[in-house]
Amino acid sequence: MPQHGQSADVVVVGAGIIGLAAAWRARQRGMAVTVLEREVAGRAASHVAAGMLAPVAEVEFGEDARRGLALGLRSAQMWPEFAAELQAATGIDVGLTQTGTLLIARDGDQARELQRQLALRDSLGLETRRLRASQAREHEPALTPTLHSALEVPSDHAVDPRRVLDALREACRATGVELHEHVRVAQVESDRTGSRVTGVALEDGWPIQAERVLLAAGAWSGEIGGLPERCSLPVRPVRGQILRLRDPAGAGLVRHVLRFEGGYLVPRPDGRYALGATVEERGFALRTELGGVYELLREAHQVVPGVSELEIEELCVGLRPGTPDNLPAIGQGALGGLVWATGHYRNGILLAPLTAELVLSLLAEESSRHAELLATCSPLRFAEERRQEGRHATLSPPEVVT
Ligand SMILES: Cc1cc2nc3c(=O)[nH]c(=O)nc-3n(C[C@H](O)[C@H](O)[C@H](O)COP(=O)(O)OP(=O)(O)OC[C@H]3O[C@@H](n4cnc5c(N)ncnc54)[C@H](O)[C@@H]3O)c2cc1C
């Protein structure tokens, strides 16, 4: 439990991958950092994630997706060094596997869709290669013989998020970050003028003073009180169910990350696999349901029949933090001293190194170095949208009753 009257340079709300990575970086810069976690550190969305580092496979049509691509590519580049730094600091290998990704088409319709996806990636200058069925099976002999074709994305890799969380927790401890678990932040506190944060208040009213408050509370980031309407952020929970599987025969059934209609299979170096994931807009309920899991298993079995031999270790469920445009919100809030790092949706593991770097640049007042990336993920973009909506509402003609 934090001490009464305790103060810090930075209070971080939430100990997921984002809060921990940012806390570590800030502490490395000499700031006094306190992390407050309402449950156990690293046990929410980050704990269940598959760990794909997949900016190229994830890219979609549309302007928002392209802006997201720039963030994803930058962070993917940072991962090898981030993983090496974590290992040097903690001795924990975070399971970075650099074997690339295959996007699988089982039939003609799916192959036509992959062709469209290939054209999009070509137009963006992203390295992607079409493989015939026989070539795909040379890469992955466990693929079904009835496979139609595949796309190879050589630069999309994966890490083991649970090992990353173990390493970040240890790195935070070793550098002197104060981490308090089972401590729920109820609200952000601000000064009498309401223009600058002074810290946070816990559930029982206990205050923690801080120059800066970093809100990194994942899907719950919009639930923290004390923020005026103009400062709040529209973060929503997007549920994902995912299976952890284990091959009793050890590693080797599949080497690449495989993505197919309705799911993906991510191999770990030790013969374990993540088979995910559903994408469901069902509020905060953390329920697992047979329908979604059945679909995942059926699709995976059609692509890699050998998955039926794998043992089920765990069925997990988590809440991705989504924003209206599904891009993250990283940057200064509308209150002085308030910084957001949330809304990472399907890419929080991928974006962790970059997010920590961007947050550090804000805390250290060096943000001009990353002006373009920070503009992409500015939390203020939603306030602007709200203002526009408000103006349209005011400008709309009065209803005429006849
Ligand atoms: C099934 C699934 C698969 C995924 N696969 C991938 C993938 O392959 N690659 C990828 O890049 N991303 C993936 N993601 C997305 C990724 O997991 C998230 O984007 C990322 O974990 C978000 O991290 P976070 O730290 O913001 O949130 P979280 O990990 O959810 O952490 C937020 C923390 O804040 C705490 N908190 C909340 N409210 C309070 C409060 N009031 N006071 C104190 N603490 C509070 C919570 O308890 C929690 O520990 C996946 C997500 C899911 C669900």
Q: Please state roughly what percent of the residues sit in beta strands, choosing from under 5%, 5-15%, 15-25%, 25-35%, 35-45% or over 45%.
A: 15-25%
**Class computed from helices, strands and strand pairing:** alpha/beta
At the first level of CATH, the class of the largest domain is: Alpha Beta
* Mean pLDDT over the residues: 93
Q: Supply the CATH superfamily name of the largest domain.
A: FAD/NAD(P)-binding domain
Question: If you compute it from the alpha carbons, what radius of gyration comes out, rounded to the nearest whole angstrom?
Answer: 22 Å
| Overall tally of structural domains | 2
Helicity, in percent?
Answer: 25-40%
Explain what you see.
- With 402 residues, the chain is α/β, with parallel strands linked by helices.
- It folds into two domains: 7-48 and 163-235 and 325-395, FAD/NAD(P)-binding domain, CATH 3.50.50.60; 98-157 and 236-320, D-Amino Acid Oxidase, Chain A, domain 2 (2-Layer Sandwich).
- 33% of the residues lie in helices and 25% in strands.
- It is built from eleven helices and 18 strands.
- The strands form three sheets. Strands 1, 2, 8, 9, 10, 11, 17 and 18 form an eight-stranded mixed beta sheet that branches. Strands 5-6-4-13-14-15-12-16 form an eight-stranded mixed beta sheet, sandwiched between helices.
- Strand 9 and strand 10 (197-202) form a beta hairpin.
- The longest helix has 28 residues, at 63-90.
- The termini are far apart.
- Flavin-adenine dinucleotide is lined by residues 13-19, 36-39, 44-46, 48-52, 184-185, 216-220, 224, 240, 242, 276-277, 318, 320-321, 342, 344-350.
